[in-house]
Amino acid sequence: MVASMAKKARPTPSAEQTAVTIERAARLYRMLHLIAGAAPNRAVIMRRLKLDVRGFYRDLELLRASGIVVDVQWRRYHLRSALDEALGRLPLPDPRLTIGECLVVARGRSTAHRKLRYHLDRIMGAKSASRRA
Hints:
Blueprint: H1 22-37, H2 42-49, H3 53-65, E1 70-73, E2 76-79, H4 83-89, H5 99-105, H6 111-124, H7 126-132
Helix pairs in contact: 5-6, 6-7
């Protein structure tokens, strides 16, 4: 009997699980602008962003893990949503803020404020973070 050598599928990391450098965030930003304005093929995107094939597909996978829908038709890539909506989902590099700075920034009523307070609650405990915010 021959043992199967099939590879196990690795789960795709979510955008929140993937650390994004400033350089990669800038490249993803440029990629979104490229595919929002026209429908370039892979070679054009790779040349403009100075990517190899592996880097191209890794960036494409991160965009999709972030909830950004990129369609491929006739080997051309295009953004399904509006550019502003896609940019709203693009991961941001860690701004290296302190908890004190986050407490100041978390004051507010928007979705972004609530998201930051949620993370502070997880770190500090719900009662202490809510009292300080």
